[in-house]
Amino acid sequence: MAYFRYGTVAYRKWAQVSESSGVGRPRDVRRDVAMHEAALALLTEVGYDQLSIEAIAARAGVAKTTIYRRYRDKAALVAAAVEQRQGSAPPEPGGGGLRENLLAVVRWLAREIAEQEIGVLGALFAGMRGDPRLAEEMRRILRRDQTAMTDRLRGEELAPGAAELFAEVAPGVIVHRIVFAGQRCDDRFVRHVVDDILLPLLRKGIRT
Amino acid sequence: MAYFRYGTVAYRKWAQVSESSGVGRPRDVRRDVAMHEAALALLTEVGYDQLSIEAIAARAGVAKTTIYRRYRDKAALVAAAVEQRQGSAPPEPGGGGLRENLLAVVRWLAREIAEQEIGVLGALFAGMRGDPRLAEEMRRILRRDQTAMTDRLRGEELAPGAAELFAEVAPGVIVHRIVFAGQRCDDRFVRHVVDDILLPLLRKGIRT
Amino acid sequence: MAYFRYGTVAYRKWAQVSESSGVGRPRDVRRDVAMHEAALALLTEVGYDQLSIEAIAARAGVAKTTIYRRYRDKAALVAAAVEQRQGSAPPEPGGGGLRENLLAVVRWLAREIAEQEIGVLGALFAGMRGDPRLAEEMRRILRRDQTAMTDRLRGEELAPGAAELFAEVAPGVIVHRIVFAGQRCDDRFVRHVVDDILLPLLRKGIRT
Amino acid sequence: MAYFRYGTVAYRKWAQVSESSGVGRPRDVRRDVAMHEAALALLTEVGYDQLSIEAIAARAGVAKTTIYRRYRDKAALVAAAVEQRQGSAPPEPGGGGLRENLLAVVRWLAREIAEQEIGVLGALFAGMRGDPRLAEEMRRILRRDQTAMTDRLRGEELAPGAAELFAEVAPGVIVHRIVFAGQRCDDRFVRHVVDDILLPLLRKGIRT
DNA sequence: AAATAACCGAGACGGTACGTCAAGTCTTGAG
DNA sequence: CTCAAGACTTGACGTACCGTCTCGGTTATTT
């Protein structure tokens, strides 16, 4: 078995990417696809904490063993499923000024969070205690979008460090709106965020 | 049994407050206290998703049925426990200026979220699907602290609508720091939030 | 409380008849009637082991405590209900000969057992272990019907001791038919029992 | 999952004999042995209705789920345990005449019923309502002994149909003695049954 | 071609927790 | 006092998943 000892506990070596030593029957990639699709579908149907590996296996037409051979637990599976999913790319910086670009990016970010990340948040929440490595990995997934997104904001009329500040403020405000306030991120809210929060913070010359 | 039919499903009538018709043995309030204390203690010890009703019952010295008689499920119990909890009050506005007051409030808010709300977030994620009423109630709990908190910031040298803006931005940034970035809210971070984000947004005359 | 100590266990004194010491609010006899009716009805509906005190109380419109105040447990309640029940009297010995009388009695006995005693049997099986006194009481009830029944068969053309033999054989054969063979006691079976078993055994002069 | 749909309800396929499709990890037969032994032992110790699956699992050193995976409920488990048990075979027809053979068989039957079947009777009685299939199965078990037993009585000086009559009368009379009359089946009673009931009924030439 | 090594489906297994139910006791208020 | 209502403890129930394991069988690569 693919176990090794560390301290007194047996850990299984999970593949970061594939790790395949080349020998032996290779893994069937279609199984991954099926598992990810089933996981995402069930995630939106029943929510994260009602999501069971058993159900994912059944829906994907895959043996439970096949799942556990690849993923440590539910959180890791969901993380992989979300990562692999086709996240729509953030919008290209159009010809408009800073405000137009911010509006586009925030609008895209709000939709992204509202539609999909809610499952990731559950997985993150469940997994971060007790498995810091997994938590770090899920943060990496979240950051992936962030960097791609903040790249759209470099240059221009921005104060120094504006991109980092954007990444610090914008997602938090949007999540707060959705989860805590329980309200939709309509266009009015997007304009409010850009005009009343982001522009004052990011625009060069505003701050002393 | 205290069931009634709604559609094709049998629902149990859960008491919002007490519902007691006056007849029969009244519910022992100490049981509620014990349950809430056990729930909160275990919540911080093992986290939300490792939290089991079985363990709460054992810790509280209470029968499982007694819990199920009062709360539909784990999320509802956690919600009640959190609501009843002694939320430490936000600090009084001392004699210092706006910056000192902001620092105190943000420092308090960061500790509050890090230590306690983190469990509520789990309950919120878990319960909001399938029971919007519960989700709404938990949001109400969160809002309660927020309004109590923003009251500390009225008057002074604030721009109009500053309190609402604070409630919109501060918790989001803190949660983002803890959950997404996975970093502690040390004093350096608190000063950063106040100096680089809040003060520019809230100070009167800064914004055009 | 109506408890007394025997060894280390607390026993409650249950009334054989009423025991009322005259002090306090008198028991409402209609509650007994309701409880008995509910018990008998549910007994034939769901069987003995599916019979729950909870259901009896609900059906009778009586509090569970009211039942426990009067009867030790399910078996005792069923025993009382059966005892009080209107057992249809065995048929009078008509003008016909021995065979006609036997046919009438066996037919009545078969219906009696099939419809009602079947529940008592469950109580008997369940209660006889652990409470021999209760078992003896239920046997007394069964015997009461038997003796009333065998009285119909005295005199006539019977061999000496025929009535006792009848009480020994007939119920056993009928119960065997119902419980072990799982078949109905139709008229063909009744004639078979009378012609092939009872008459050869009971008729005077047949036996040497 | 080993489920199939019947009507609107999902049933689990329980193995009558083994049913194993050959695929998957095979069941450990020693688990069956342990469960049966524990069930029979506890059955005689505490009686059927005090018999709990929990206790059987503990005694057998087997997980509760392992029991529920194989048997629908308590009655099914007891039925299987009883069926598998080595029922002592009825005595061989010795060289003696009809009376000696009858005495031997009835004596064996009385002991069999008195010592062991009492638990089975309870199980049969409790389970036969509500689960006709189980009732039928337990009847099959009882019949198995009966046929083996009546085989000892064929030929000889018997009236035609005597074996069937024996199977119809003897068990009923014995059960009646034990359960209804609450008396032991001593040797005096055995002789009484043979001489006063069975011989008159079964002997060739007695009946017309 | 054969051996090797890993993958895969199916399902048994020991567990933990679930949510429900019934039994029997205890606590209140009303008659 | 007795009575009715209902909270409460205890513990069994049967179900759902968990994560591990053992099979029989199937690919691939390596020898």
Account of the protein in words:
Four copies of one chain form a homotetramer. By secondary structure, chain A is mainly α. Chain A has two domains: 3-15 and 28-84, Tetracycline Repressor, domain 2; 98-202, no CATH class. Chain A is built from eight helices and two strands. Chain A has helices spanning 29-46, 53-60, 64-70, 74-84, 98-128, 132-150, 162-181, 187-202, and strands spanning 3-6, 9-12. In chain A, strands 1-2 form a two-stranded antiparallel sheet. In chain A, a hairpin with a 2-residue loop joins strand 1 and strand 2. In chain A, helix 1 (29-46) packs across helix 4 and helix 5 (98-128) crosses helix 8. In chain A, 33% of the residues are buried. Residues 1-13 of chain A have low confidence and may be disordered. The structure holds a DNA duplex (31 and 31 nucleotides).
